[in-house]
Design goal:
alpha+beta; 6-stranded antiparallel beta sheet; 661 residues; 55% helix; 21 helices
């Protein structure tokens, strides 16, 4: 039997080592693993020839591995560049593209940090734009002057620079700010390449390690390629932004032209509508309705004193009590008067109505959160139209007031001897002014501080209009004639109301009611005496008639009404006695006749002293607590005496003309 040839153990060891090297190449093992086959061959006793063969194979395998690594690295770089190009083709967000480029630079170069700075032509430096892997806030906010540090030098010279250990590299101009940021970030090796757009440098792209590192030419070339892509991205974004800005400007110009055209149309329409309104004799309320319709809100018009002249509710279906438009806010009205334009305050638009510097009133617009420029001008134009209407109305009112004042002067003038008073013509003239002199009228004479007299005359004329009366200045005093059954009540109301309106005390003396023009001159004289008495008594700023002045009214009155005086002083007590059958008036007579002595009074009345006390307490509750004061006692005693003197036996002691229901 023939035997197989015996295998050479040495050749088997070499073949095994070669197969192991091939397996390491296939699996992409680490470099240090490639030395193991040669070591195992030596351990197995390989001869010199075999050992040399294995070592040569190891060297070749390492060369092959280096070539494969270079190809893979180049493939990764090309892939990154293609991805970057794809990002640029679909450029939507510049920041996102720059972040992707910086991140790829960090990954491809295997550095700890990558970042990008852009030049600022205004400030003359370069500033941090994007970072990847940075942890220092100071580093992320760095600004490098041209020529400062590594990046400033790259930005200035447009050439790449690298430093294996920047901190110890004296080729660069170190500054405290840059060194602090680099030290806080912990950087040592730094590579920077310029971002170019044509011949212009717009920034710098960096890759940096926190350890000492030499950057190979391949790394510089790769980072430069990424920098070129970043520059393209930035320039494309700039062009895109310029295009967008141009489109925005074009759109804004178009919109401005459209808005101006619309504003001109609206202004012309408003002008036509308001002009037609004024020409056909429209009033303030008509202007308010037109403007409210044009602006789509509620509108209120007030005069200079805050009195409402017209109102258009913001909600036509809302009850007037729920309408939110009120008098304009004081600060808004002051601001509008100051600059002459409409202002928005507390959710309302306010426009002062002015005639030069003189305030005539205001417009208040509600229901509009904002107004365009054209709408605001429309609102202000409405203020001008309202001012014209108010001036026209004031002129008409002043002319009418002159007519009313002339009529009032004729009515109050004393009758001339030998001339009959033309009552009929005066009644006719009054009727044409809406005044019916056949009704009882009260006549009120008023005065105030001389500096306020003109304002008082104006305010009195306004009140006379509302009361269907007359007002004017007669013999230097402001006079008001109005229908009234209680002149004293009217005088008190006017003194208070007009005092507030003119901002100073107004004193009002009254007379009447006068029945017909013939009684008015006498009523005027009585009202003047009452006014003078009010001043003499220290009652400036009050209103009253002669009956309100007690016994002084009797002395000053012309044909005094005794019954009215007794009624004023003792009326409630007389009425109490009449209704209950008591003797309070008799008790008062006995009380004062006996010198206010309770003992003598009870003897005169033949009653117990407690009865007298109870009756006097009852009188105090009826007449008031001050009935027994010196002034009150004087009035009561005078009224009691007038009551007794004027009484007849048939009417139970009441004065003539004095009756009790």
């Amino acid at each position: 039997m023939t035997s197989e040839p015996e295998k050479d153990p040495a050749s088997g060891r070499a073949a095994h080592a070669l197969r192991e090297l091939l397996e390491l190449l296939r699996s992409g093992a680490a470099v240090e693993q490639f030395t193991r086959p040669a070591a195992r061959a030596r351990t197995a006793g390989a001869g010199p020839a075999e050992q040399a063969l294995v070592e040569e194979a190891t060297r070749v395998a390492l060369d092959i591995r280096g070539t494969l690594d270079q190809h893979r690295r180049r493939e990764a770089e090309l892939t990154a560049l293609f991805d970057t190009a794809g990002d640029l083709a679909a450029l939507r967000d510049l920041d996102a593209v720059l972040r992707a480029i910086v991140h790829r630079a960090r990954m491809l170069l295997g550095t700890d940090v990558a970042y990008l700075t852009l030049n600022d032509p205004v400030a003359g430096d370069t500033f941090m734009r994007v970072t990847d892997g940075s942890v220092s806030a100071a580093f992320q906010q760095l600004r490098l002057g041209m020529g400062e540090g590594l990046g400033g030098l790259v930005a200035q010279t447009a050439r790449p620079y690298a430093s294996a250990d920047y901190r110890a590299d004296d080729r660069f101009r170190h500054t405290p700010a840059i060194d602090h940021g680099v030290r806080e970030e912990g950087l040592r090796g730094i590579l920077g390449v310029p971002l170019r757009v044509g011949t212009r440098v717009i920034g710098v792209l960096y890759a940096a390690d926190r350890a000492v590192r030499d950057f190979a030419p391949d790394a510089v070339a790769l980072l430069s390629s990424l920098a070129d892509h970043a520059a393209v991205a930035i320039d494309s974004a700039r062009l895109l932004e310029e295009t967008r800005a141009a489109l925005v400007e074009l759109g804004a110009a178009t919109e401005t032209a459209r808005a101006q055209s619309e504003a001109m149309r609206l202004a012309a329409e408003t002008h036509d509508r308001l002009t037609r309104l004024v020409l056909r004799g429209g009033e303030v309320g008509d202007v308010a309705r037109e403007v409210a319709a044009l602006l789509g809100g509620g509108l209120a018009v007030h005069d200079a004193d805050g009195a409402e002249l017209a109102r258009v509710p913001a909600d036509p279906h809302s009850p007037s009590g729920h309408d939110p438009i009120g008098p304009p806010p004081a600060r808004g009205l002051a601001a509008s008067r100051s600059d002459g334009h409409a202002v928005r305050v507390d959710g309302l638009w306010v426009c002062a109505v002015l005639a030069g510097p003189e305030p005539l009133g205001s417009l208040t617009l509600a229901g509009r959160a904002d107004l365009s420029d054209s709408e605001r001008r429309l609102f202000e134009r409405a203020g001008l139209v309202t001012a014209l209407l108010l001036l026209l109305r004031r002129s008409i009112a002043q002319a009418e007031d002159r007519v009313r004042g002339e009529l009032l002067g004729d009515l109050l003038a004393p009758e001339q001897p030998g001339r009959a008073r033309d009552t009929g013509s005066r009644l006719l003239r009054a009727r044409k002014l809406g005044v019916d002199l056949t009704r009882p009228h009260a006549l009120v004479v008023m005065d105030c501080d001389p500096g306020l007299r003109s304002r008082l005359a104006t305010e009195a004329a306004r009140r006379a209009h509302t009361r269907n009366g007359l007002a004017g200045v007669h013999q230097g005093r402001v006079v008001l004639l109005a229908p009234a059954e209680a002149p004293g009540t009217l005088a008190r109301a006017l003194a208070a109301e007009l005092g507030r309106a003119v901002g100073g005390p107004v004193t009002a003396g009254c007379a009447g009611p006068a029945a017909g023009p013939a009684e008015l001159p006498g009523a005027y004289d009585e009202a003047v005496r009452c006014l003078e008495a009010l001043h003499a008594l220290g009652h400036t700023g009050c209103g009253a008639g002669l009956p309100d002045l007690g016994f002084l009214g009797l002395l000053l009155g012309d044909g005094a009404d005794v019954g009215a005086y007794v009624d004023t002083v003792l009326g409630p007590v007389l009425e109490y006695d009449a209704q209950r059958g008591t003797e309070l008036v008799r008790t008062l007579e006995a009380y004062f006749a006996q010198g206010t002595s309770l003992t003598r009074t009870k003897d005169a009345l033949h009653v117990h002293v407690n009865t007298v006390v109870q009756r006097l307490d009852r009188i105090g509750r009826i007449l008031g607590a001050d009935w027994n004061s010196p002034a009150g006692a004087l009035e009561i005693q005078l009224a009691l005496r007038v009551l007794r003197v004027a009484a007849g036996p048939a009417d139970g002691g009441h004065p003539p003309g004095f009756t009790r229901g």
